[in-house]
Amino acid sequence: MPLFSTDTFYKSQMFLKLANTMDKFLLMDKLEGRRNWTSWKFDIDLQLSINKVKKIVTGELKMPVPLDDGADEVSRRYITSLKIYEDSDAMVKYIIGCSVRPEAKQHILTCNSGMEMWEYYTVYINRRMNVG
């Protein structure tokens, strides 16, 4: 009899893959400000792409607007779209929020969306650095 069932082995491989991804995320430099802005922006852009949520910060994925149609199919599509948006936005907020130092986090505590957080840092730091 094998030590691990196929199911247990598969789950352990999935766990290792997830743990490896989180380790890389946790090892990234946290945003301090102008000093490491370029490197941080590159790392976060990569994380947003890997997690398939970059469309939130580019504005390509927007919060869906409910239609007054009232039809069941339209309502189901709206609910599905809203869930996708909310999950994606939560991931963006998590990625950005966990990747900044406490001093830098103070500036985004009142942001309502991941896009607001990204725009704040992009505009604020780029303005202070005089870069585009």
Question: What would your notes on this structure say?
Answer:
α4 crosses α6. The protein is an all-alpha fold. It is built from six helices and no strands. It has one domain (31-129). The longest helix is centred in the middle third of the chain and has 26 residues, at 72-97. Helices cover 66% and strands 0% of the residues.
Set out the fold topology.
Elements (H helix, E strand, L loop, with lengths): L5 H22 L9 H14 L3 H5 L13 H26 L4 H4 L8 H16 L3
Helix pairs in contact: 4-6
Characteristics:
single chain; 132 residues; mainly alpha; 6 helices; 66% helix; disordered N terminus
Computed Rg:
19 Å
Classify the secondary structure makeup into a structural class: mainly alpha
User: Into which percentage range does the β-strand content fall?
Assistant: under 5%
Average pLDDT metric = 81
Summarize this, please?
The chain is an all-alpha fold.
